[in-house]
Structure formats: C-alpha cells, structure tokens
Specification:
Blueprint (H helix, E strand, L loop, with lengths): L2 H40 L4 H42 L1
Helix pairs in contact: 1-2
Length: about 90
C-alpha cells in the first residue's frame, strides 16, 4: 500500500463519518437553539425543558435517518473491502 492509497482511504473515511453524523448533529444544534431562544423569551430556566425535547428530537431523527446511515456505512465497508486486495500488494 502506498501513501496515495492510504490518504485516499483516510479521506473517504473522514468524509463518510462527517456525512453520517451531520443530520444528527444538525438536529441537536437546531433544537438546542430553538429551546434556548424559547427559554430566553419566557425567562424559564428549567434544565429538563432543554433536555427532554432534544432527546426526543434526536431519537426521532435517528429512527428516520437510520436506514440511510446503515446503507452509507455498508457502501463504505463494501468499497473498502473491495480495495483491500490491491492495498495488500
């Protein structure tokens, strides 16, 4: 395996991991900002008010996005395993 193959595999790995994690992270940030604005407007500083909606939204997001995440990770794994014999040379 030469350096170009190693860098290409690493780039593909980082791109796939960022792609897979982005919907969950974006939902967490969006819900966090909305709840923070709501707390600032109403002057309610309850910790569970921020926690419960965020956990609910993330759970729903993970259920909805899980098939796409699984398909993306399977495609990456298949591509990596197909490239493994040429990397071993």
């Amino acid at each position: 395996m030469n350096i170009e193959q190693s860098v290409d595999i690493l780039r593909s790995l980082v791109t796939t991991s960022l792609t897979v994690s982005s919907p969950i992270l974006l939902m967490a940030v969006t819900v966090g900002v909305v709840i923070s604005l709501l707390q600032a407007v109403t002057s309610i500083q309850e910790a569970s008010l921020a926690f419960i909606p965020k956990v609910t939204a993330l759970g729903i997001t993970m259920i909805v996005v899980a098939p796409w995440i699984l398909r993306t990770l399977m495609d990456f794994t298949i591509e990596f395993l197909n490239r493994l014999p040429e990397a071993a040379r």
